[in-house]
Amino acid sequence: MLLTFIRHLRSNQKFKSFRPDGTLNLAGFFGFKIPMLQGKKEFDFAQLAGKKTIVMNVASHCGFTPQYGPWQEFHEKHGTEINLIGIPANNFLRQEPAGDDKIAQFCEVNFGVSFPMLTKLEVIGRKQHPLYQWLSDSQKNGWNQQAPTWNFCKYVIDEYGQLQGVFGPAVEPNDPDLLKLLES
Fold this sequence. Notes:
Elements lengths: L1 H10 L21 E3 L6 E3 L7 E7 L9 H11 L3 E7 L11 H12 L18 H6 L2 H4 L12 E4 L5 E5 L8 H8 L1
Parallel strand pairs: 3-4
Antiparallel strand pairs: 1-2, 3-5, 5-6
């Protein structure tokens, strides 16, 4: 069934994420490859095609850090329909100072995090990672200019690789606006 859905997506040419020949346009959201926290295995965003995705910048020493718990529950409940990606960043008051291995251990021990966690990135500033350049540049994503304003900002990308929504740090998985967007 998933293969049929992906074929349908590829045949729908109104979306920039697919080329006229039906293959993924790897210049957009689905083109990113970023190492994971542990083992440095690359996470290929092309595997996200066909499902909505939430990309969230995270930090271990933030007032919003307890959100890991509800987001892990969300992942356990909706992980087969909605992708959830955590990306540690140390851009806001140095609230993620540890290296990748310690971050992974913290998330697993304290919150049982099993959703994909990628390597620590710069989400704002001069060294902003290309993923966050794409997420926060309307010339690249089609409409949004908002970079993360703090830890735990959420970006919702649809199954076609198009940015659909941006949510602030206080938004949790039960937020009505977020749920409405994910259900559309």
